[in-house]
Specification:
Elements: H1 2-5, H2 8-33, H3 42-45, H4 54-61, H5 67-83, H6 88-109, H7 112-135, H8 137-148, H9 159-163, H10 165-187, H11 189-205
Keywords: Membrane, Transmembrane, Transmembrane helix
Organism: Empedobacter brevis NBRC 14943 = ATCC 43319
InterPro entries: DoxX
C-alpha cells in the first residue's frame, strides 16, 4: 500500500483530483458571479414565504450581495490555489473549509431527494482533497508539528496583568464607538450632542 502512495500512478490520481476540484469550484464560483446560481423566478417571488421551502428561501437570501460575490470569489480563488504546486496545500485546506460549509448548508435546507445526491458527491470531493493533502504530507505535516511544540510567549507578564484582560477587552470594544462619536462630532456637532443627550436621558430613565 505504501508503494502505491509513492507511485507515479497515485501522483497522476492526485493531479487529476486537483484538476477536477479546480474545475468544479471554478464553475461553482463563476455560476454565482454571473447569476447562474441562486435566486428565484418570478412565480416563486410572488409566492408567500410560508408556502416556500427552506431551500427556496435560502436560495433567495443567497442571491444578495456581497454574500454572493464573496462566496463566488472565494471558490474561484480556491480553484486557482489548487492548480499551483506552491499553493496546493493552502488551496486544499481552503477547499475543505468551503466544502464543509456547503455540506452543512445542504443538509439543512435541501429536500431529501437533492440532499442525498449532493451528500455523496461533496463527501467524495472531501475524500479527493484528503488525498491531495496526504500526497503532499511531507510538506503539510511539518506545519502541524507547531501544534505539538511547546509555545514560548513573546513576553511574560505578571499575574495581576492577566486580571486586567477583561478591562482591556472592554476598552477595545468601546474603541470603535468612540471613534464614531468623534467622527460625528466633527461632521455634525449639534446633532451628535443632541443625540447623545437623548440617549443619556433614556438610559437614566430606565435605571
Amino acid at each position: 500500500m505504501n508503494k502505491f502512495f509513492n507511485s507515479k500512478l497515485f501522483d497522476f490520481i492526485v493531479i487529476s483530483a486537483r484538476f477536477l476540484s479546480c474545475i468544479t469550484f471554478l464553475s461553482y464560483g463563476w455560476g454565482k458571479l454571473n447569476g447562474g446560481q441562486f435566486g428565484l423566478n418570478s412565480d416563486e417571488l410572488n409566492t408567500p414565504i410560508k408556502d416556500l421551502s427552506l431551500f427556496k428561501i435560502d436560495w433567495y437570501l443567497f442571491d444578495h450581495q456581497p454574500f454572493k460575490f464573496f462566496i463566488g470569489g472565494a471558490q474561484i480563488l480556491c480553484s486557482f490555489l489548487l492548480l499551483f504546486n506552491r499553493t496546493v496545500i493552502i488551496g486544499a485546506l481552503f477547499f475543505l473549509v468551503i466544502i464543509s460549509n456547503i455540506i452543512i448548508i445542504d443538509e439543512t435546507i435541501m429536500p431529501e431527494t437533492l440532499k442525498l445526491a449532493f451528500r455523496y458527491r461533496l463527501l467524495f470531493y472531501i475524500f479527493l482533497c484528503l488525498l491531495i493533502l496526504y500526497h503532499h504530507r511531507n510538506r503539510f505535516l511539518p506545519a502541524l508539528n507547531i501544534l505539538k511544540a511547546k509555545y514560548q510567549p513573546i513576553f511574560k507578564h505578571k499575574i495581576w496583568i492577566y486580571l486586567l484582560i477583561p478591562i482591556g477587552a472592554i476598552c477595545l470594544e468601546l474603541f470603535i464607538p468612540c471613534v464614531k462619536i468623534i467622527y460625528f462630532l466633527i461632521t455634525d456637532f449639534q446633532g451628535t450632542v443632541e443625540a447623545l443627550s437623548d440617549f443619556s436621558k433614556k438610559i437614566l430613565s430606565n435605571m
